[in-house]
Design goal:
Elements: E1 27-32, E2 35-40, H1 44-47, E3 53-57, E4 59-61, E5 65-74, E6 77-90, E7 96-101, E8 111-113, E9 119-126, E10 129-134, H2 138-148, H3 155-158, H4 167-170, E11 178-181, H5 193-202, E12 205-211, E13 234-238, H6 240-251, E14 256-258, H7 261-272, E15 279-283, E16 299-302, H8 309-318, H9 320-332, E17 343-347
Parallel strand pairs: 1-17, 3-12, 3-14, 4-11
Antiparallel strand pairs: 1-2, 5-6, 5-8, 6-7, 7-10, 8-9, 9-10, 12-13, 13-15, 16-17
Helix pairs in contact: 8-9
Amino acid sequence: MQLSDFDFHLPEDLIATRPASPRSSARLLVANGKATHDQVVTDLVDWLRTGDLLVLNDTRVIPARLFGTRARTSTQGDTTAKIEVTLLEPRADGTWAALVKPLKKVKIGETVRFSDELSATLTGVTDGQGLLQFNLSGDDFDAALNAAGAMPLPPYIAAKRPADAQDKTDYQTIWARNAGAVAAPTASLHFDDALMQALDARGVQVTYVTLHVGAGTFLPVKVDDVTTHKMHSEWGQVSAGAAQAMANTRARGGRVIPVGTTALRLIETMARDGGFHAWEGETDIFIYPGFTFRATDGLMTNFHLPKSTLLMLVSALMGTERMRAVYAHAVSNAYRFFSYGDASLLLPQAQDAKPTS
């Protein structure tokens, strides 16, 4: 299984830099077994059955990108440097691991000021990442970060435009509540209140889990033999109530369908320990073709980067040749790709088109 098996040509103009408006008006490619259907996200209600369960990731993206200034006084006079910081994750000692650019312009013990309220001191460096101790904590830190920070847009969007105020709404799910992610569970960005109401009326149930998506989700695979790739780890939690909802769904013949690869990776991590049960911890599960799914009956997800672990994941669910055909169809029909792009509904076991019950 080679990295080249998961490559494809993607025209630059298919990379979305803004989401569809309204959210649920995005296109939806339904891969129903071997059949392919061109739909829109509002049609999701027609492809789900009464008694199906959607598993939603309720992580909240923090405005993790900060722009600040380092000031230094020396015998040669006062100097300043502009510093860009992307927060990665909090550590047990109260510091934050962060990407600091340029790291060489900040010395251990120096402070970077981001606003009148928010500053951070560089306390150490590990694995090329800076360790930052902020001057605030708790609610005060959250408020100052929300005021000073920008949404950490994926590199392929940030390279085209800076994050702005609109992204603080667009790059957040409508049910986000547990702060800690530095990337959004992007398949969930297609859901709005109208779609949630339609799903409820259909009899489709929902439950929530938490996986704090890390910046590692954008890391490229650098090995030719994909089975030797080491995944980044992310913290997640499945509550007893969510696990019971999944177990009950399966018991009555319904389907468990995670929305997004983050929710899927979390519930499959849970299931490695034996069925549906409460689970909490770090997961570095790597899903590629040959993987046995124990908790997942289908998946709603966006379109992923060439040679990415997420493309390997959907290939594991649907089959590599099938996903090649799905992506070729998406490209030829000008679907919009990546975080702000269109969506797909992947159903390994074909069902009758647009079921009515």
